[in-house]
Amino acid sequence: MYQENVLGIITDNNFRHYGVRDLEAGLKFATAVKERHKDIPILIQTSDQNLEEKVKKIGASFLYKNSPRLLHDFVSLCSIILDLVILFLNSETELQSVALQS
Question: What pLDDT score does 102 carry?
Answer without folding.
Answer: 34
